[in-house]
Amino acid sequence: MKLLILDAGHCLSLALARETSRRSDTELVIEQATQVSAERLREVSPDAVIVPPLAHPLNMAPAAVMEHADAVEVCLEACRAEDVALVWCVSDQLYEDGFDVAIDEHVVPAPRDESLRRLVQTGNRIRADYARHLIVRLGPLFALEGSHAWLNELLDSLVMGDSVRAAEDVIFCPTSADAVALALIGMLQQQSCGADAWGAYHLAGTEPVSAFTFTSMVRTQLLTHLEGRGEQVTLGDVEALKHHHDAKLRRVLNCRRVLNVFGVHQKPWRLEVGRMLDAWCLTRDPKGVDGTGASS
Q1: Are 150 and 143 within 8 A, CB to CB?
Q2: How far apart are CA 207 and CA 215, in angstroms?
Q3: Nearest CA-CA partner of 276 in 121, 189, 150, 107
Q4: What domains are defined for the chain?
Q5: pTM for the whole thing?
Q6: Fewer CB in 10 Å around end: N or C, the chain?
């Protein structure tokens, strides 16, 4: 199976590159651009095109969100012309106001924000115009490298002693970019074998949590890892923010369909964070630690 993914520096693109490098059944072509032409698809002949998500469209300039929607629609036309499957990953922020219960796949987002509505229009067009699509709605992505990675910037800020502010009244399911990469390959492998299960799917980490609690847990695990290495580092503090004064906003995706159809299980975000911190410590500059393991 050959996949083509756009936006080479995106954390999901890098995660897919790592995953495919360990496999013999999947080939990955990475494009620097954020859109692809029919001519390029004829040249590469991929089985699917993957468009990484805007991780935080609510926090982006509206023009950038509109540009992303336009690029996705260019990809849609190219995929239709060459009969190539289209996979579009989308942030859970499209459910702008959240829900009291876990959000099922059939619930189409209806945001108030104009730029988010533009993304929903793109999704509606994909569903109406092209059967061979997967719209994969994701919780907040985290990874150690790449754009939209979140965790890398969080670790850098904490280690530098900077305070980190995070909302305590927004509940979501943090999602490992590595877990998404593994899931997408598994889903597309089954599609290539005749599963014919196109449509919208939700994919997120387990355990709903606030941004404040997630960030605080990252800080606690980071401190444990550094102390285990013999490093004495004064980490930055985590400050709680409140955006919703009346009630907590919940964006919790129900991921039952991706399990029932493809057998894809959600990955616990705590375990994924721990694994990534192990990897982060292995690549940490050893300068500043003497031979006894104590800070110099």
Answers
A1: yes
A2: 14
A3: 150
A4: 2-142+175-205+252-266 (3.40.50.720)
A5: 0.92
A6: C
Chain Cα centroid distance, residue 163: 24
48-51 and 2-5 beta bridge pairing: parallel
Phi/psi class of residue 267: alpha, beta or left (left: φ > 0; alpha: ψ in -120 to 50)? beta
pLDDT tens string, the chain, 296 residues long: the values are 999 999 999 999 999 999 999 999 999 999 999 999 999 999 999 999 999 999 899 999 999 999 999 999 999 999 999 999 999 999 999 999 999 999 999 999 999 999 999 999 999 999 999 999 999 999 999 999 999 999 999 999 999 999 999 999 999 999 999 999 999 999 999 999 999 999 999 999 889 999 999 999 999 999 999 998 888 889 999 999 887 666 789 999 999 999 999 999 999 999 999 999 999 998 876 544 443 343 33
Q: From start to end of 69-142, where are the E strands?
A: 85-91, 133-138, 141-142
> 121: which 2 tokens?
């229009």
